[in-house]
C-alpha cells in the first residue's frame, strides 16, 4: 500500500523524534535521542513501526515481543495482519486494517479498537493508536497497542445485563430476550457465532432457544438432541456440567457423527459452557462457534463464562415470572371451583393466595418491605430492606422494628401511628430511621394491616422508600417525560358546569411526574363521580397504571353508580393485573339535583365542612386497591348538602407536608384554613391551601399534592 493509491494525495509528513532512532546504532545517537530510544524500548505499551511500502514492521519494542509472544527477529518479518484474526467487529481484518492505515496517513493520527492474536493463536482485544511520521526518506506509521481485555469484559457484562433487563422489563419472551443477548455478544466478539440451547429435563434433550447467525438447517438438526458424554460440545457440556472446548471439530471424537453437518454449516471450532442456576442445576448451554480452528484465549474463557452467567440470570428471571403467573392462575381456578363442602381445602387455597400475593408484593419491588406478625415480630424482609438498612434477614427476623428507631420521634408519634392503623387499616407518612451503621435516613413509610377472609388481621406490611436517595439518573429522564405526557392526558381540562355547585381541582406535583390524579365523570344514575387517587411510585409504570385505572373506572361508571361497588370491582381488576403497586382512592357520587352525595374510600379519607363550622371526617371504607383481593362492602347512606357546605378531597401530601423543624402541616391546620376561607370561591380555596403549604415548608415540597373542592352554592 503506497500513499497516493486510490486517489490519496501524499500527506504532509509529521516530524517525530523517534524516526531518528529506529535502526540507528546507540553509539551514533546523541543524549536526547538515547533517552527517546530508551522510552521506545521500555514503554509499558507495545510500540511498532510499520513500513507502508512493504507492509512489514521496521521496529518493535520489548512490550510488543511480550504481547505477541514472538521475538523481535520474527516480528520484523511480519506485518499487522499476520498478527490479527481474519474477522474484526466491523468486517474482515485486511479490509478494515487497510482503511485504518490510510486514515492515519490522511489525518496524521487515528485510534480504534482492534483484535490481535499471539504466537499461540489466542485472540485478545486491544486499543490501537496509529500515528503517521517520516523516517529517513519514507513515510511510516507508528502503532501504540494496549491490551483491553478487562475493559472489554466490563463492556460485555454491562451490555449483556442491560439487554436482558430491558427485554424482560418490556415483557419480551425468553427466546426474544436470549436473542438480544446473543446478538450483543456477537457484536462485541468478532468472527464468532453464538447459540443458546435449553435443557428439557423430562427428555434430557437440548432444545433450540436462540442462534440467529447459525444456518436454519443447523439449528433444526440440533434441536432435540440428547445429551451425553461424547455428544458434540453442547451435549457433553450439559451432561458433565462443565465447559467443553473443541478447537477443531474435524479432528474430535465428539463430533464424528456430525461431520457432514459441520462441513455444510462451515463450522470448525465449538466451545460450550453449561448455563447453571444459582443452585448449580444445568439449565442449558451457551456455545461459541468459529469458521476456523480456534483455541480459546484466557479472555475468551472468561467471556464465555460471563455470558453463560448472564443467560442464567435471564432464564431464572423469566422462569420465576412464569411460575408466579402459573401459581396465580392455578390459585384463582381452584378457588373458583371450591365449594362449601370443601371448606378446609378452600381455606388452604386462600392462605396460599395470600402468601403468593405477599411474595409478589414484597419481594419483587425496589421498595424496602418488612412483614410482621400481629404481635410486632418481624417475619420476613426483602433484599431492598437489607440494602437500605444494612441488616440481613437473619439479624432482624424474630425482633421488632424498634431496631430501626432513630430517636428523633417520641412515643406520642408512634402511638398516633398505630391508632391510625387500628382506625383506618393503614398509616402513611415520613419517618426518621437508623441504619445498622448508625446513619439516620428519612423514609416514606406505609404500614398496612392485612386481613384474611374473616376480617381478622394476620400481618402488617411496611412498604418504605428512602427519601435521601439521589434523583433518578439521566437515563430515566425520558421515562419521566413520557409519564408526564401520559398524566397530562389523564387530568380533565375543566369540570362540567354543575348547577348550584362551585367545583375546582388541581395537582401540584413534587417532581416532574405526579403519583396523584383526579377525574370527573357521569355515573350510571346520572350523578357526577369525582375521584382523587394516589398511585404508589413514580415514572412511566405508575403513569400507565393511572391511565389504565382511569379507563377502568370510566367503564365501571357506565354500569353502576354506587361508589363502594365501583371501587370493589376496580380492586378485583387491579389485584389480578399487577402486584408491584397499590392505589389509595376516594370516590364521591354527587347528586346535583338532590344536593346530596355518597362516597367510598380505599385507604383514603375526605372532609365535609358544614356551613355552621362543623367538620366531618369521611373515613376510609376499605384498604387501598391491590392490598386485599376481596372486600366486604358496607352500604353508605347519602349525605344531604346545604348552602355553604364544602367537600374537600385531598391526597396525603398536604397533611404530611413537613417543615424544616420536622413538624407536619397536619389535619388541624388544614381544617382551620378551610373554615377561614369558606366564603371564597373553590378556586381561591385551592390556591390558599397550596400557598399555605408552600409557606409552611419554606418551598420544599416532598410529596405530590392534589385536592378537589366542591362547594354548595345558595340556590336563592
Topology:
Elements: H1 31-41, E1 46-51, E2 57-60, H2 62-68, H3 72-75, E3 87-88, E4 91-92, H4 93-107, E5 109-117, E6 123-135, E7 138-147, H5 149-169, H6 174-188, E8 192-200, E9 205-210, H7 216-222, E10 225-226, H8 234-240, E11 244-246, H9 259-265, E12 269-276, E13 282-290, H10 298-337, H11 343-363, E14 368-372, E15 378-381, H12 383-389, H13 393-396, H14 411-424, E16 426-434, E17 440-451, E18 457-466, H15 477-490, E19 501-508, E20 516-522, E21 528-535, H16 540-557, H17 563-577, E22 583-591, E23 596-602, E24 606-609, E25 615-618, E26 639-640, E27 646-650, H18 652-655, H19 666-676, H20 682-696, E28 705-712
Antiparallel strand pairs: 1-2, 1-7, 3-4, 5-6, 6-7, 8-9, 8-13, 9-10, 11-12, 12-13, 14-15, 14-18, 16-17, 17-18, 19-28, 20-21, 21-22, 22-23, 23-26, 24-25, 24-27, 27-28
Helix pairs in contact: 5-6, 5-10, 6-10, 10-11, 15-16, 16-17
Amino acid at each position: 500500500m503506497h500513499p497516493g493509491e486510490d486517489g490519496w494525495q501524499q500527506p504532509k509528513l509529521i516530524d517525530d523524534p523517534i524516526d531518528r532512532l529506529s535502526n540507528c546504532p546507540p553509539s551514533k545517537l546523541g543524549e536526547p535521542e538515547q533517552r527517546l530510544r530508551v522510552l521506545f524500548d521500555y514503554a509499558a505499551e507495545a510500540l511498532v513501526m510499520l513500513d507502508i511500502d512493504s507492509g512489514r514492521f521496521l521496529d518493535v519494542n520489548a512490550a510488543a515481543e511480550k504481547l505477541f509472544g514472538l521475538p523481535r527477529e520474527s516480528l520484523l518479518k511480519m506485518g499487522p495482519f499476520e498478527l490479527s484474526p481474519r474477522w474484526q467487529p466491523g468486517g474482515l481484518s485486511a479490509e478494515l486494517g487497510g482503511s485504518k492505515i490510510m486514515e492515519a496517513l490522511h489525518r496524521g493520527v487515528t485510534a480504534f479498537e482492534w483484535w490481535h492474536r499471539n504466537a499461540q493463536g489466542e485472540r485478545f482485544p486491544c486499543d490501537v493508536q496509529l500515528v503517521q511520521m517520516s523516517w529517513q526518506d519514507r513515510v511510516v506509521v507508528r502503532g501504540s497497542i494496549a491490551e483491553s481485555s478487562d475493559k472489554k469484559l466490563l463492556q460485555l457484562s454491562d451490555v449483556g445485563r442491560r439487554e436482558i433487563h430491558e427485554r424482560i422489563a418490556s415483557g419480551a419472551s425468553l427466546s426474544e430476550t436470549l436473542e438480544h443477548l446473543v446478538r450483543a455478544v456477537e457484536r462485541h466478539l468478532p468472527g464468532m457465532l453464538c447459540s443458546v440451547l435449553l435443557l428439557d429435563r423430562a427428555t434430557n434433550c437440548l432444545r433450540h432457544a436462540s442462534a440467529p447467525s447459525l444456518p436454519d438447517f443447523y439449528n433444526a438438526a440440533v434441536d432435540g438432541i440428547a445429551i451425553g458424554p461424547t455428544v458434540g460440545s453442547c451435549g457433553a457440556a450439559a451432561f458433565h456440567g462443565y465447559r467443553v472446548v473443541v478447537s477443531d471439530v474435524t479432528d474430535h471424537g465428539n463430533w464424528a457423527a456430525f461431520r457432514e453437518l459441520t462441513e455444510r454449516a462451515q463450522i470448525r471450532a465449538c466451545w460450550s459452557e453449561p448455563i447453571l442456576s444459582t443452585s448449580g442445576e444445568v439449565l442449558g448451554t451457551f456455545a461459541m462457534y468459529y469458521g476456523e480452528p480456534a483455541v480459546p484465549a484466557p479472555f475468551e474463557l472468561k467471556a464465555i463464562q460471563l455470558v453463560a452467567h448472564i443467560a442464567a440470570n435471564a432464564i431464572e428471571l423469566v422462569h420465576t415470572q412464569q411460575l408466579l403467573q402459573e401459581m396465580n392462575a392455578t390459585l384463582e381456578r381452584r378457588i373458583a371451583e371450591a365449594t362449601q363442602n370443601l371448606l378446609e381445602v378452600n381455606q388452604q387455597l386462600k392462605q396460599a393466595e395470600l402468601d403468593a400475593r405477599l411474595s409478589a408484593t414484597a419481594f419483587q419491588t425496589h421498595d424496602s418491605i418488612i412483614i410482621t406478625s400481629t404481635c410486632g415480630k418481624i417475619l420476613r424482609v426483602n433484599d431492598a430492606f437489607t440494602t437500605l438498612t444494612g441488616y440481613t434477614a437473619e439479624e432482624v427476623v424474630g425482633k421488632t422494628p424498634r431496631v430501626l428507631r432513630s430517636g428523633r420521634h417520641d412515643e406520642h408519634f408512634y402511638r398516633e401511628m398505630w391508632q391510625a392503623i387500628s382506625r383506618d387499616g393503614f398509616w402513611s407518612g415520613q419517618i426518621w430511621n437508623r441504619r445498622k451503621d448508625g446513619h439516620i435516613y428519612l423514609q416514606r413509610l406505609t404500614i398496612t394491616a392485612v386481613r384474611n377472609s374473616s376480617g381478622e388481621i394476620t400481618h402488617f406490611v411496611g412498604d418504605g422508600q428512602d427519601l435521601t436517595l439521589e434523583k433518578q439518573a439521566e437515563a430515566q429522564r425520558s421515562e419521566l417525560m413520557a409519564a408526564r405526557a401520559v398524566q397530562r392526558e389523564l387530568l380533565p381540562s375543566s369540570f362540567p358546569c354543575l348547577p348550584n355547585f362551585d367545583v375546582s381541582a388541581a395537582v401540584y406535583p413534587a417532581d416532574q411526574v405526579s403519583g396523584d390524579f383526579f377525574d370527573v365523570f357521569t355515573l350510571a344514575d346520572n350523578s357526577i363521580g369525582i375521584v382523587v387517587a394516589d398511585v404508589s411510585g413514580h415514572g412511566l409504570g405508575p403513569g400507565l397504571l393511572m391511565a389504565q385505572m382511569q379507563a377502568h373506572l370510566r367503564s365501571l361508571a357506565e354500569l353502576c353508580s354506587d361508589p363502594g361497588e365501583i371501587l370493589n370491582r376496580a380492586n378485583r381488576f387491579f389485584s389480578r393485573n399487577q402486584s408491584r403497586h397499590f392505589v389509595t382512592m376516594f370516590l364521591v357520587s354527587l347528586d346535583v339535583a338532590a344536593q346530596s352525595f355518597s362516597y367510598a374510600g380505599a385507604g383514603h379519607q375526605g372532609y365535609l365542612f358544614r356551613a355552621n363550622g362543623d367538620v366531618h371526617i369521611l373515613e376510609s371504607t376499605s384498604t387501598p386497591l391491590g392490598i386485599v383481593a376481596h372486600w366486604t362492602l358496607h352500604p353508605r347512606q347519602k349525605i344531604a348538602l346545604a348552602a355553604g357546605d364544602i367537600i374537600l378531597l385531598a391526597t396525603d401530601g398536604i397533611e404530611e407536608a413537613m417543615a424544616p423543624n420536622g413538624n407536619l402541616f397536619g389535619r388541624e391546620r388544614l381544617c382551620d384554613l378551610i373554615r377561614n376561607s369558606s366564603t371564597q370561591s373553590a378556586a381561591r380555596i385551592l390556591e390558599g391551601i397550596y400557598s399555605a403549604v408552600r409557606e409552611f415548608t419554606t418551598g420544599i415540597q416532598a410529596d405530590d399534592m392534589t385536592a378537589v373542592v366542591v362547594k354548595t352554592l345558595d340556590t336563592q
